Predict the structure of Phosphoribosylglycinamide formyltransferase, chloroplastic.
Amino acid sequence: MSMEIQNVILRGSFNPAVSSIQTRKARLITHLATPNLSVIGSPTWVSMKCDCSFHSDTLPTKRNLQQCRNSAQKAECKGISDIEEDKPKAKIRRKNLAVFVSGGGSNFRSIHEATLNGSVHGDIVVLVTNKHDCGGAEYAHGKGIPVIVFPKRKDTEEVFSAEDLVIALRSVKVDFILLAGYLKLIPAALIQAYPKAILNIHPSLLPAFGGKGYYGMKVHKAVIASGARYSGPTIHYVDEQYDTGRILAQRVVPVLAKDTAEELAARVLHEEHKLYVEVSAALCEERITWREDGVPLIQSKENPNDYC
């Protein structure tokens, strides 16, 4: 009785306890010549369809083998051969995040909620603020997230340096730092300790309306006064200056003719919440790549060949 050879599994070794028919199939496949067949790496299995057949009671002859070779070659030329690799995806470790705030922390809250619902593959393990009684700090206390005050207030004798902050962040194994409305300049010691690992969000399309003194409502008033027709949030890497690091992502919103600063701020903030969650997700999923000229790009989750 003839049997069609389909979806043959190639493995490094064969179990001697298998049936005689399975053994004959294994011998056949190990002798099959498959020219022009290239497999990158070490696939766990390869499937190939072949038109040839042989009698189950006899081992294949040289003629049978040649027929199988020819059939396999024809199938490959016709595009019928099917080669697949089963590569298990490397499990990505959940990342530990530190968030820095100076105010209400609405972006902080959005990111935290995203870590809880699974949108962001990470956990916020510490909040850093320069205002111990700000809304962001109160939210963190309510959620059981540790809070560090940095820099310390001038009316306290306690000394807490940038080096101390680095030690504190490393003690909870922080992978990335997200600035979400933090108004203090990040010290060089922290930037050096976390290269290409600190992000900031700014409420304008940088490099316009950025730098020292441009924050909060001041940005939106300046945008409207300039006559700009578009604005929106920018997420960028942090360097030792205000708002000059490499731009990672932006989102554009219109500036309407009769906008007030408050109306424009609300429109931009709505996009900030979505954009920062998307970027945080890409960061934790290790989808940030760097172009040769030093420009960071986000790899698409759906299509790894697309970038934004």
In short: The mean pLDDT is 79. DSSP finds eight helices and 13 strands in the chain. Residues 2-77 form one domain.
